[in-house]
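If it is no trouble, might I ask you for a protein's amino acid sequence along with its backbone structure tokens?
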Amino acid sequence: MAGDFMIPDFMVRALLAGLGVAVVAGPLGVFVVWRRMAYFGEALAHSALLGVVLGAVLGVLPWLVIIAVCSAVALILFALERSSGRGSDAAIGLIAQGSLAFALVILAFMESERIDLFAYLFGDILAVTRFDLWLIYGAGLVVLSVMALIWQSMLSMVVNEDVARVEGVNVTATKILHLLLLALFVSGAMKIVGVLLVVAMLIIPPSVARLLARSPESMVIISICVGMLSICGGLWASYSADTPAGPSIVVTAIGIFLVTLIIRPRGVSQKQ
């Protein structure tokens, strides 16, 4: 009977975790898209894997080491951006690929430790625990609270940094905060969609929203909705067709983007 259908507990936890990630990715992602920072996000995502391996080596709670490593990389990326405008693509690529390579080399020497690389690379949302949910929602609350405080400063900075400075915006502090928030997000989201796919959650929903939104605030709301729809659709596809959950979520998001690109209202455009 339909009334006897029960959703497994692991699917409920996966859905809650995914929705939490989608809500946080919305406001963070719009600025990643506006400021063309996708490569920065990739570098942070790759450094997260190095944090996982170092956490295992040190015998410390992995979350703490991941956050520490990602935060350190975020500060390095800021220094690169400040010294060369938007940062040297080659230097950022060196950090991104170097972090991943170092993680794999260190892992090769760890005979006593077993780390499921596939889960960290592509996500393991179906294995989310109650403790993971507390971490995701706790980190999410911190990120959203700080984003609310720096929202106007971020908008002013995106429009024109020089004008923002004249208006009293601390551009340096705002940029550092945004990068640290990205580091915190990556640390939490990597278990949901994985190191290689976490950037997709930051850029695909905002890219869809940019095709439809008429204001920055509406872009955030649409981005969150697209992210939630991607989570729900991806989990449903994974549960029904027995496909990997993380990639299924990203494929769903790409599908939404393509459909939106075809059917979007012609009069709607988002200026960069």
